[in-house]
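Example record used in the benchmark description.
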Amino acid sequence: MNEAAWQLPTLAVRAGQERSQFGEHGEALYLTSSFVFTSAAQAARRFSGEEAGNVYSRFSNPTVTTFEQRLAALEGAQACVATSSGMAAIMALVLAHLKQGDHIVTANSLFGATVQLFNNILTRCGIGVSYVPLADVAAWEAAIRPETKLFFLETPSNPLTELADISALSRVARAHNILLAVDNCFCTPILQRPLDLGADLVVHSATKYIDGQGRVLGGAVCGPKSLTDEVFKYLRTAGPTLSAFNAWVLLKGLETLSLRMQAQSAAALELARWLEAHPKVARVYYPGLPSHPQFALAQSQQLSGGAIVSFEVRGAREAAWTVVDHCRLLSITANLGDTKTTITHPASTTHGRISSEARAAAGINESLLRIAVGLEAPSDLQADLARGLALIPT
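Model output (structure tokens):
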């Protein structure tokens, strides 16, 4: 089979599968901790890497390998290393490629847990971190030090859907021999392929859209084998491993990823337009709207605006919480990427552990709400939000 000629929807369903002697149609689930060898010599070859094959499910499992190969195919990557969560993927990427004394440049617009990881854990390892405005390419270049080894960014950002020009940042990074890693969680390879735009590595929280139904945790790092091999070495020893069961669930999620991303993006655009016209809404953040300051970049870099819509109500925390508390259909949870639409107040949840100064730098205020649009009818979502919006004083 010529996988290189397949389109993304086909890759999402077929790539990477190797059937066992039983000829199963669906992907096999290998629930085993270890694998048996035919001889002591084969065991030695497997452990040394001289012979390809499975050894121990901390770092080699056929179900996990199928998931890795399929996601790599979707991202246009040579290889992929799967991890137990998205945060584990970021940690593995950083510790595989950086050491004490090295430096990261990243964006003010960053997921709260990633900020916590960078500020409170990596700094203990002697790795420095500088924050710059996501969209300001000149600021990224100005922040470079002799010890800078990594540019790390999310695009679109969480939760304000701000965009980075991946191609422009890639040119800066390459000129200074710096790795560029992109968290592609919001778009997935269906809507955006950062490696095609010049990124060196792509990170995923597979927990989100790749699963798509809020069932399991997972993460991944995709890129050229020369770079992912270092991540694999870290995973083999440290063990932030994706379980075989979770990999099997994620494979099922990939099969519908293309359909879901297209449908949820279309619904998000409809909801964003409705919110933008609502008198109780002060501002809407959605890359698919012409009012978004980087609408042109979104049109050139992404297939669509994605399924995340953030907006500010006219008021502060009390007004925002009123909208949340009167939702009967939308799920009040911080997870995203689900077929069920979710709503959260970022300042008190996903970004609640970072400082107020960091939230201000990222543009996250008390009136902001984030919606991850699912597969419900947009009119039903509008009706659910309208209940709380109507109670905000004029």
